[in-house]
Amino acid sequence: MKSKKILIGIVVVVVLFIIGLIGKNNNEAKMVIKNAEIAINEGNYEKARELLYTVVDGNNKKIDKLWNIVNSYQNAQTANLEAGLKYLDEIDNSYKKYNKLKEDVDNLREELLSTKKVREKFKLKIDEVKGLIDKGNYKEAMELSEETSEWQHIEQKDKNTMYDLHVQAMELYSEQVKEERKEEQKKQDEEEKIKNEQEEQSKKENQENNFSKEVAQKIIDKLNNDNGNSRNFYEITSDLKTDDNGKKYFDVVAKDKDWIKFDDHTVLANYKLYSNEDLVEVQN
């Protein structure tokens, strides 16, 4: 009987101890939750995380939710884009009652979604640049692939792809410009050649149309004055004639200018003088 009373006493003590321990743990948990919420409202998420880490064990739903909120948000801050969005989607909806945290979570989500949109548009731009290069629009491709402020949000592999396309477009555009300049110069040379030929033809036609004995005499006088050591002296001996090809000319003879002094007018050679000032010897 006595031992039974002792056993009952021990059980009572143990129960009271457990109840006291549970009460103590509950009080500690409540204090951690309170301090963690204060830290969350202040935006001090690392402090809140450290507080919650000491008591999180899966047995307190309130603590578990706070741990989920803080842990997921901090992970979202450091993770890559897709993982960050996934962490934010996993945050318990109770985060919305903490104004500071709600603002930070919403801002981070907006930032990540904006970055995602920029990256998606950048990939489309890569395809557009490739298309421009394929079509030979190298200058437009070069301009579209230039580095801009958006590049700070782009993954490195896509940056590298766009940079390579930019270099390719620059090189191809440089070659294109060289070829275009070469073609333009060729065109200008051909136009200049045609222009010169037309001017020369026009000059010949004018010479032909205006060819007269007076003009012919000026040509002969020039020949006689400029013939240097030559003893030839040229004289026009006919009126205007036309050869079998329709070209106008005058008959011209060459005499020895020294013989002429002695009244010797022997003809040394016969020529035809054309409007282009060509003096063509006539073979007898």
Considering the chains and any ligands shown, give keywords for the structure.
67% helix; alpha+beta; 9 helices; transmembrane helix; 5-stranded antiparallel β-sheet; rod-shaped; coiled coil; single chain; 284 residues; membrane; transmembrane
Q: Strands, helices and their partners?
A:
Layout: H1 2-41, H2 45-53, H3 61-78, H4 81-89, H5 99-134, H6 138-144, H7 156-209, H8 213-226, E1 232-236, E2 241-242, E3 248-256, H9 257-260, E4 267-274, E5 279-282
Polypeptide structure, described:
This protein is α+β, with helices and mostly antiparallel strands. It is 67% helix and 10% strand. It has helices at residues 2-41, 45-53, 61-78, 81-89, 99-134, 138-144, 156-209, 213-226, 257-260; strands spanning 232-236, 241-242, 248-256, 267-274, 279-282. Helix 3 (61-78) packs antiparallel against helix 4 and helix 6 runs antiparallel to helix 7 (156-209). The chain crosses the membrane at residues 6-23. Keywords: Coiled coil, Membrane, Transmembrane, Transmembrane helix. Residues 176-207 have a biased composition (Basic and acidic residues).
Shape: rod-shaped
> In sequence order, what are the helices and strands, one letter per element?
HHHHHHHHEEEHEE
Mean pLDDT: 88
Q: Which radius of gyration do the C-alpha atoms yield?
A: 53 Å
For the largest beta-sheet, the strand count, sense and barrel status come to: 5 strands, antiparallel
Low-pLDDT regions:
11-25
What structural class do the secondary elements suggest?
Answer: alpha+beta
**Total number of beta strands:** 5
Measured as a percent range, the helix fraction is: 55-70%
- Report strand %: 5-15%
What's the tally of helices? 9
Distance between the termini: 173 Å
Tally of discrete structural domains? 3
